[in-house]
Design goal:
The complex is a heterodimer. By secondary structure, chain A is mainly α. Chain A is built from five helices and two strands; from the N terminus they run H-H-H-E-E-H-H. Chain A has one domain: Winged helix-like DNA-binding domain superfamily/Winged helix DNA-binding domain (Arc Repressor Mutant, subunit A), CATH 1.10.10.10. Among the domains of chain B are: about 55 residues, no CATH class; about 180 residues, no CATH class; about 170 residues, no CATH class; about 190 residues, no CATH class. In chain B, helix 20 runs antiparallel to helix 26 and helix 20 packs across helix 29. By secondary structure, chain B is an alpha+beta fold. In chain B, strands 4, 5, 6, 7, 8, 9, 10 and 11 form an eight-stranded mixed beta sheet that branches. The chains are: A mainly alpha, B alpha+beta. At the A-B interface, helix 2 and helix 3 of A face helix 2 of B.
């Protein structure tokens, strides 16, 4: 099966959705990304990435939780799909393997 | 600021932009998130900054990602064969269930398309002139722009032999030069077979320039020996029968024997050159002393035509700059100094034959343009029919559209459905149109005197034709397709859709456009007919009836007196004359050097006719002042026509002296104007000189007592007796004169036919529309009848809308066609006035035809039994 490619930012968003304790939607994810990375990121970039991940099948969404603050509009809550979790796990495993493959000497140079 | 009680709103423009741009399925949560962020920012940084940030945030959503529609989860091939088959099935069923409507639609389209096809072929034929010759783009005719009195440029084809010498030796860009005579008729004789046919005496390189295909002989050498002749296939057959003509001898003008050195394929009809044989120019130079002398003469001996072929890749303008002032070397020759040498490319000869101020700016191309426009208009009228009939029936098909949409048809599928219908209808119409044109073509050819054929083997013809058919289908089908597919299923199925004023307005506009075109075409046809009639009825100034002319050839010159005496004596003719020009032309124009009251440097182009004292009597022209020539020896007298006297500004002309060709003449008389050249312009100023020598054209009027048939029999016998080596040929002047109207008569006929077809197609459409309207209002008519409406009032109710449209069309078409026709008429110096009754007549005619068409349906509806129409619900 062809596996969809995950970009760096996409992986980050996916991890943040996975890590969220409460229901994740646009604003919370946006705040989290900025908090975790310390970078300034536009909300549109976050939205675009979320929708793209949904198209690729890594995320699913459902609508709900309208508030007055939002002018009565519902939020779109994102959650990880099976494919999404599998993609994260595979990435993680590949990283582990690569870390283990680094020779001792080089690790010391890296400061570990 | 208290923000809790009055929650602030983000800027309106940004919201609008977002709502307009971001696709619906994303908008809600995107906008919600943006609002949430905005409210937080208001608390943190204040309203102004938050609003600015909101704006910036929104702008970042303006990218294609947020625009795209929700992706569907099933895939659709670009063209589904199943759907395509379905479209065709539905189309076929539509066609069969509505036979009358389909018939109207297809008949209208087929008529329009065959008109367009015929005109297209005709236009193509006109453009194909001379282009079949290889390297035709390198071929030119050399002409002269003559500066007359400094303000008017006249363009002449006449050139001198000195010019050919100069072009040959001084212009290296020119590959070949061919001098030529004016392609007159000559006698060809083989044994007892005599022909008098049109041919050219032309430069030896001619066949290497104009590469007409040779069946036998070599184009390089065929015209190289002075005593040779090249025949066309049919001339060779006429002279030699089935024998091979090559190498055989033809007696030319009963003077010399020429050897046949080549056989040409017959010259196609779309060639500007039309000849039956070619004789090398060297033959003339060796046998005619005046031509030999011309070779060493100066630039003013303009009596020949010159054709040139440029070398490959040479730029026309570059040569033009070089040859323009080439005659300006003879400083004391006014004629040469005022002449600028120009060239006209072969490809423009046929369509741009008229020179205005030194530029080939007009000619037959104008008629080609007019008919192209007519063709497009008629096709457009046919397309409008299709559009109107299809949209008018939209109410019927609205339910179909509604059901299709609600069970999941997409709009583009519906558009495809309707477009397929249009393509199938136009396709059927085209097949019909094709066979129709094919059947009409011989008649069309006979009418236009052209040899047009359908180029079955030409790939481009098919590509262009099929392209045009598809464009027509799109033109006719696109409006119905987009209109019908835009219906909203909910409204349509609820039955709420009412085709109100807005729906029928475009239809009405189209009907008005249709009838405007038809009315304009009809007025055009009538005015052209009137103009031709007007010019035909114009007094010619001489009597064209029973007047014959024969070219003086062979022994006719020698035996003229004997022949004349015998003809008169036997009472076959009542008078005879010879002249330098035939009765319907003036072949020589020149300017007198001196006359009383001449201004310095002034030139007046006069037609010059050299003849004898019998001329005016034979022609039937009246002497207005003074006298006729005493006798054939009255060589010191000159007679002018009235126009010439006016142009020369002579107060008391009789007895005055003028100088012409270095000789003094006394004005003996003034003759009334006669129309020898164009019947549409004023008479040419003309001077008549007298000579006892026999001239080139013999003109004689038959006696009133003798029957034409008997006269011709006796004439043939006598002419053959006195001129045994030539066949007797003659022309009736009235026939020749009538030929001057050929083009105008043809244009009038064609305009009439196309106008008739245009109104026919328009009426087909109107008939369909009226039928549909009547059908739609069946119930209304039924109720009205029950309540006591009369048939007349019902007829009025159903007809008046349509008649109003025709009236509007009339109001629109009248000023436009008046303007265009006035422009056309003003090109003729002698033209009729457009009278108001033409428009009234056309308007009434169109109204009448429309009335009959509509009434048929209206009365049918009005006579219907209300029980029947109200019974079913």
């Amino acid at each position: 099966m062809r596996r969809a490619f995950l970009g760096e930012f996409e992986e980050l968003i996916l991890l943040i959705v996975a890590a969220c304790t409460e229901d994740a939607y646009g604003v919370t994810i946006w705040e989290q990304v900025q908090e975790q990375t310390g970078r300034s990121i536009t909300i549109s970039a976050v939205h675009a990435t979320l929708y793209r991940l949904e198209e690729k099948g890594f995320l699913s969404s459902q609508m709900g939780g309208a508030t007055a603050e939002r002018g009565g509009r519902r939020k779109r809550f994102f959650s990880l799909t099976v494919a999404g979790s599998r993609a994260l796990i595979e990435l993680e495993q590949m990283r582990q393997k690569l870390w283990k493959a680094i020779p001792e000497g080089k690790l010391q140079i890296l400061g570990q | 600021m208290n923000t809790k009680n009055h929650p602030t709103q983000p800027p309106r423009w940004a919201d609008r932009l977002l709502e307009w741009f971001v696709s619906d399925h994303l908008l809600e949560d995107v906008q919600g998130d943006l609002y949430e962020i905005y409210q937080r920012r208001v608390k943190l940084v204040g309203i102004a900054k938050a609003q600015r940030e909101y704006g910036w945030n929104v702008i970042r959503y303006i990218n294609p990602f947020f625009r795209k529609q929700k992706t569907t989860h099933y895939t659709q091939p670009l063209i589904s064969t199943t759907m395509l088959r379905n479209y065709f099935i539905i189309t076929w069923r539509q066609l069969l269930t509505n036979k009358a409507y389909s018939f109207l639609n297809i008949a209208g389209l087929a008529t329009g398309m065959s008109v367009a096809l015929l005109i297209g072929l005709w236009v193509y034929h006109q453009y194909s002139y001379d282009r079949f010759l290889p390297e035709s783009e390198q071929l030119y005719q050399v002409k002269r722009n003559f500066d007359e009195n400094g303000d008017n440029t006249l363009t002449f084809n006449t050139t001198s032999l000195k010019l050919t010498n100069v072009l040959r030796s001084e212009v290296p860009e020119i590959e070949y030069v061919a001098e030529s005579d004016w392609m007159g008729s000559h006698g060809l004789k083989v044994g007892e077979t005599k022909l008098f046919k049109n041919g050219a005496v032309i430069g030896r390189d001619f066949l290497q320039m104009f590469q007409y295909p040779l069946l036998e002989g070599d184009p390089k050498t065929a015209l190289h020996s002075a005593y040779s002749i090249v025949l066309t296939e049919s001339t060779a057959k006429a002279l030699f029968g089935d024998e091979n003509a090559m190498g055989k001898i033809v007696r030319f003008d009963n003077d010399n024997d020429l050897k046949v050195t080549g056989i040409l394929k017959d010259i196609p009809s779309n060639s500007s050159f039309q000849f039956n044989f070619l004789v090398p120019f060297d033959y003339y130079e060796q046998t005619k002393s005046w031509i030999k002398q011309s070779r060493t003469g100066d630039f003013s001996q303009n009596a020949f035509q010159i054709f040139v072929k440029l070398k490959k890749g040479v730029d026309y303008n570059q040569v033009l700059a070089k040859i323009g002032p080439i005659e300006h070397t003879e400083k004391d020759n006014v004629n040469a100094m005022r002449s600028t040498v120009i060239m006209q490319p072969l490809q423009r000869w046929h369509l741009y034959s008229e020179y205005i101020n030194g530029k080939d700016s007009g000619g037959f191309i104008e008629y080609v343009r007019i008919f192209s426009v007519i063709g497009v208009l008629v096709l457009l009228i046919a397309c409008i029919n299709f559009i109107n009939l299809t949209t008018a029936r939209s109410e019927k098909r609205a339910k179909e559209v509604g059901i299709r949409k609600s069970i999941g048809s997409e709009r583009k599928q519906l558009i495809a459905q309707f477009l397929v219908e249009a393509v199938v209808f136009t396709g059927i119409a085209f097949v019909l149109a094709f066979f129709l044109s094919w059947a009409i073509l011989p008649a069309f050819n006979a009418l236009t005197a052209a040899h047009i054929h359908i180029p079955f083997a030409n790939v481009y013809f098919w590509l262009i034709t099929i392209g045009c058919v598809l464009i027509t289908a799109l033109l006719a089908g696109s409006r119905p397709a987009f209109y019908l597919s835009s219906f909203q299923p909910v409204k349509v199925l609820k039955g709420a859709i009412r085709m109100g004023k807005t729906a029928s307005l475009p239809r009405k506009v189209l009907v008005v456009a249709q009838f405007s075109c038809s009315i304009a075409l009809i007025t055009g046809a009538i005015v052209i007919y009137q103009q031709v009639q007007y010019a035909k009825d114009r007094p010619t100034g001489y009597d064209v009836n029973r007047l014959l002319s024969t070219s003086v050839n062979g022994d006719l010159r020698k035996n003229h007196t004997a022949l004349k005496n015998e003809l008169l004596q036997k009472g076959i003719i009542e008078s005879v004359t010879t002249s330098s020009s035939p009765a319907t032309d003036i072949s020589w124009h020149s300017t007198p050097e001196q006359w009383p009251g001449k201004r310095a440097g002034e030139t007046v182009e006069l037609g010059v006719i050299i003849t004898d004292n019998e001329y005016f009597k034979t022609m039937g022209m009246a002497i207005k002042d003074g006298r006729n020539f005493f006798s054939a020896t009255d060589t010191n007298s000159v007679i002018f026509n009235e126009t010439a006297i006016k142009r020369l500004r002579l107060e008391n002309p009789i007895g005055q002296l003028i100088t012409f060709n270095e000789k003094q003449y006394q004005i003996a008389g003034v003759v009334k104007d006669a129309l020898m050249m164009s019947p549409f312009t004023a008479a040419d100023p003309t001077m008549f000189l007298c000579t006892p020598d026999v001239q080139d054209e013999m003109m004689y009027r038959l006696s009133p007592q003798i029957k034409t048939q008997d006269a011709l029999q006796q004439l043939t016998a006598l002419f053959t007796k006195y001129n045994p080596s030539y066949p007797y040929t003659y022309e009736f002047t009235d026939v020749t004169y009538a030929k001057k109207f050929n083009l105008e008569v043809l244009i009038g006929k064609l305009a009439g036919i196309f106008a008739g077809l245009a109104i026919f197609i328009s009426c087909l459409g109107l008939f369909g529309l009226a039928a549909y309207m009547a059908e739609q209002r069946t119930k209304e008519v039924g109720i009205r009848k029950v309540l006591g409406a009369s048939v007349f009032s019902l007829w009025e109710l159903l007809s008046k809308d349509f008649l109003a449209l025709v009236l509007i069309a009339f109001v629109i078409a009248t000023p436009i066609s008046w303007y265009l026709l006035n422009g056309w008429l003003s090109k003729y110096a002698y033209h009729t006035q457009i009278s108001w009754w033409v428009f009234v007549l056309t308007g009434l005619g169109a109204l009448g035809i429309a009335l009959v068409t509509v009434s048929f349906q209206a009365i049918k509806a009005a006579l219907m039994n209300p029980v029947k129409s109200l019974r079913s619900e």
